[in-house]
Amino acid sequence: MNGDAPNTEGSLKGRIEAILFVAGEAVSMKDLARALQISNDALKTTLDAISSEYDYEQRGFMLKRFGDKVQLATRPLYSEDVLRLLQPVQQQSLSQAAMETLAVVAYKQPVTRAEVEQIRGVKCDYSLQSLTLKGLIQEAGRKDTIGRPILYGTTDMFLSHFGIQSLEDLPPLPEPEHNETPDFGEAEELIP
């Protein structure tokens, strides 16, 4: 078969599954549509149909979408069975400090190290380095100020790790209660 001619054999669903299965990792929708020689709308419609079919049948895998990417992934319902078979080395979870740092970056991005430290009230060098090495955050440019500090933002791996498609899917921040400001009463008079 000619490598440049579009494949007219098999179903579009099957062709998508084959690509995602072989890729293993997330594939951008743009690249997938180009490889299949179909429009983005046709791809989205077919992905919706595949996802619905997988969900209805509770298949062992599912379509995972985040950002502009899509990937085949194990359905969480069956993850314990897979883990028992593979007996992986215990996955290292994120420390409380790393989770707090990640939350600040996710909600305030792009943000500098100094801004994260100001919000958290502690040094964040190690947490930022750890989150960068894990691929959950990345350099998102430089702030146009003295010293041109690095700006941090989340990655597609962050979206995938937390099972969300975009940052708009993050839960809203809780509203501060009106009584959270301490009442110092007479102590205010002592401040010069």
Description:
With 192 residues, the protein is of the alpha+beta class. Helix content is 43%, strand content 14%. It contains eight helices and six strands; from the N terminus they run αβααββααβααββα. It has helices at residues 12-23, 29-36, 40-57, 79-86, 96-108, 113-120, 125-133, 156-162, and strands spanning 27-28, 61-66, 69-74, 111-112, 137-142, 150-154. A three-stranded antiparallel sheet has the order 1-3-2. A three-stranded antiparallel sheet has the order 4-6-5. β2 and β3 (69-74) form a beta hairpin. α2 crosses α3 and α5 packs across α6. The protein starts with 11 loop residues before the first helix and ends in a 30-residue tail after the last helix. Residues 1-5 and 181-192 have low confidence and may be disordered.
Describe the secondary-structure layout.
Layout lengths: L11 H12 L3 E2 H8 L3 H18 L3 E6 L2 E6 L4 H8 L9 H13 L2 E2 H8 L4 H9 L3 E6 L7 E5 L1 H7 L30
Antiparallel strand pairs: 1-3, 2-3, 4-6, 5-6
Helix pairs in contact: 2-3, 5-6, 5-7
Structural features:
alpha+beta, three-stranded antiparallel β-sheet, 8 helices, 192 residues, 6 strands, elongated
Largest sheet: 3 strands, antiparallel
The averaged pLDDT comes out at 83
Regarding quaternary structure, what we see is single chain
Query: What is the total tally of β strands?
Result: 6
> What share of the residues does DSSP label as strand, in percent?
5-15%
Short description:
By secondary structure, the chain is α+β, with helices and mostly antiparallel strands.
